[in-house]
Amino acid sequence: MVKETIRVYARVKPLSRRQQAGIYSVDDNEKSLSSLEIIVPRDLADGFVNNKRESYKFKFQKIFDQEAKQDVVFDSIAKPVAECVLAGYNGTIFAYGQTGSGKTFTITGGAERYSDRGIVPRTLSYIFDQLQKDSSKVYTTHVSYLEIYNECGYDLLDPRHEASKLEDLPKVTIMEDPDQNIHLKNLSLQQATNEEEALNLLFLGDTNRMIAETPMNQASTRSHCIFTIHISSKEPGSATIRRSKLHLVDLAGSERVAKTGVGGHLLTEAKYINLSLHYLEQVIIALAEKNRSHIPYRNSMMTSVLRDSLGGNCMTTMIATLSIDKRNIDESISTCRFAQRVALIKNEAVLNEEIDPRLMIVQLRKEVQELKDELALVTGKQRTSELSQEELLQLDELIETFLEDNDPDSTLDVGADMRKINYCFIHVKQLMNHSKISDKKLLSQHISEERDTNKEAREEELKKLKELLQQRDNEINILVNMLKKEKKKAQDALFQLNAASAGSTVLETSLSINLEESQSPSSCFSLKEAKDFSSSVHRLPFFSRQTGGKMSLGCQEAFEVFKRDHADNITIEDNKRLLKQRFTEAKCLGEKLNEVRNKINHLKGEITQRHIQRAALAVCSPSEELNMLDPVEEKLRTQIEEEKKSYKTMFNRLKGLKVEIEHLQLLMEKVKMKLQKDFEVWWSEEAINLQQEKPEMVSSPNTATVYPQFIKSSQHLSTNSFSETKRVSPNEDPAGKNNSITSTNPTLKTRTPPSSSTSIPLTGDSQADADILAFIKARQNILQKKGLGNK
Ligand code: ADP
Ligand code: MG
Q1: Fewest C-beta atoms under 10 Å: which of 113, 419, 680, 741?
Q2: For a substitution probing ligand 1, which of 11, 12, 13, 325 has the most ligand atoms within 8 Å of its CB?
Q3: CA–CA gap between residue 28 and residue 35 (Å, rounded)
Q4: Nearby residues of 206 by Cβ (< 8 Å), 6 or more positions away
């Protein structure tokens, strides 16, 4: 049993350029607790908190200041918890703090750099690494990803859904069994046999989480997300299973309602968040109190879900995330206060072990059979559960003789057979009950009568027992079948583990596939990227709804421009470059590995050659020298050892590269998704704006008659006639100076044409052309904002 208080850490987010730094100081103490002092400036202290106190001091296990990197945070916070979980204890790590203070960054990670990956991917990596190293047990790993929003749970890993709204995901409900264990209905537990599968699931969940969110509905800041890793382990052949789970929790923003200044729908949400965080606090306080029998877990969904993982049987760790700029001093103080209350709880973590009933039955059956065999061996007879008629008669005779014998030393010897011994006892008992009947004849008559009735009763009992036996046999058969299936699953898992650790060839093959992809002459990388891109565009719920699954030409073009100007494009380009670099590096390493392998093989060949030579020499002209160690062979062996060492180093590096490459690919996919989503939002906003300004433009199906002003102005924009080419080239009218003279439409008057490199295709299809118009307008807005537009 492990007993300790909940560990509480603090992490201070780096300030952005625009933020004004608050005053704080960190007293980092390696040996004991560290302390964080926050100074409330005088101008703020008048307004709130307490105008008498100006400095607040809080103790933490450790404080990660602004420059702390993700790997350091993982090593100090998550690694010890992951180790406990691997040993069979439950664990929870939760991040608490106001919106924007770095909870998601800490738990999941940043979306841009590989080095920014957070606790979840690092923990998965660590856990699978450890599992691979331990071949003494069979491990099964599952993950689940739950989002709680307005007290409703949603399964982020539901494979059937490409959700466009959170509400589209399956609703998760809480069920409680008679033993008060919590079960989550509809929350899928997905098996992950290796790191890659687990990371893909995390990615799926994060994508669902992102897609379900719109700028108007930033659900993620107001919802709690719980990523759970479930591990079960068993030694081969043992009936004991150890189960443990690790919850990685990204809580909703802890800011107070008053501060956010919201109303209506948002206020309802805020109430829910604040309530559920309040209930979390209540549970934590109740856990901290001694002799408290009732813990109010049931008040909220989150406390119910974390029931077995908050207090009691769990290693719990909290990270208080702080954004210490001047405006957030009060929130930072309240986050620290919460953290201090959490630090008071003492936890007792115990191992979660249980006996597998199926295995137990098999073991018992085996034991029974072994005992029977042993018995048969000793007695030389196969034993049935019933005595035969013949044996019964023999026994009757023996008892009779024994009772008749007047010698006080006489014995009744029926052999070491419990069935016979029991039979004799029953008889003697019956005789005792009828002890008054002394007449021998009467006695023997009685015995035979008794045996007849006994026989009837026995037959009745026999029938019942047979039925019972049949029932048990059926049960056992069912259980054995289940067991077989389970065993097969375990074997499969083991096989996969072995396959993974057999590693070198598999890894190399998979890498070489990637490498081939990257080295193909027509730059397959961007080709593949393009494919991914277009397929994910088609997946987008927005476009499927709007255009029946197809983007109009105008929309596509707008997207290209939007993409080029989007801030994330730099990230994509950076990552693309990095990915290419990694590919090249991996390819180089792969080649080097092959070289080293060939070299080793060559050296081995040389040694064999040497053996043959020496053996031949020994036959022809035996000499003392030939029995001694061969210095040449020794040298060759040392060389092999060295080559092996470098092989191992390169191989490990290659393995690391593979993980990094996969992660980078996931990151890119994520950023692209985000880009598309941003585009959708921007696009629909522009469409709405346009509709509000010129409703008749969009509503009429006839383009030619509806856009007279536009055609006019576009004719001036272009030297080509619109009706001839249906294309407007803005290049021809760089300053747009003709607009104000001929255009009759005041809203179009001020418009600038799209950027010089973009030509606008008008298709005659009203939807597509409406798209184009929206695009032109939006483009102008952007240019104007950037100060590039024509006034
Ligand atoms: P929260 O989840 O608490 O609302 P986020 O994790 O989304 O906050 O952080 C807000 C922003 O700050 C994000 O853009 C994130 O990348 C950035 N950020 C947070 N913590 C750090 C950090 N330690 N280093 C660099 N950037 C950070
Ligand atoms: Mg967040």
Answers
A1: 741
A2: 13
A3: 7
A4: 108, 156, 670
Residue 13 CB–ligand 1 contact under 6 Å: yes
Quickly tell me which residue has 């061969």 as its tokens.
630
CB of 232 within 8 A of CB of 243? yes
The string of pLDDT tens digits covering residues 378-388 is 777 777 778 88
Task: Give the whole-angstrom CA distance, residue 778 versus residue 117.
Answer: 35
Please tell me the distance between residue 65's alpha carbon and the centre of ligand 2 in angstroms: 19
* Contact 110 CB / ligand 1 (< 6 Å): yes
The bound ligand whose nearest atom lies closest to the alpha carbon of 115 is 1
293 CA distance to ligand 2 middle (Å): 34
Give the model confidence (pLDDT) of 683-715 as tens digits.
788 777 776 765 544 444 443 333 333 333 333
> What's the confidence (pLDDT) of residue 352?
63
Q: Is the CB of 102 under 6 A from ligand 1?
A: yes
* Highest-scoring range by mean pLDDT, 528-542, 556-570, 639-653, 707-721: 639-653
CA 99 to ligand 1 centroid distance, Å: 9
> At which residue do the structure tokens 């023997």 appear?
444
- Ligand 1 pocket, 64 CB below 6 A? no
User: Which residue carries 């859904």 as its tokens?
Assistant: 161
Pocket flag, ligand 1, residue 140 (CB < 6 Å) = no
Three-class SS string for 408-425? Answer: CCCCCCCCCCHHHHHHHH
User: What is the predicted pLDDT for the residue at 562?
Assistant: 82
For ligand 2, a single-atom ion, which residues have Cβ within 5 Å? 104
Tokens of 401: 């003789």
* Tens digits of residue pLDDT in 709-722: 333 333 333 333 33
How many residues make up the chain in this entry? 791
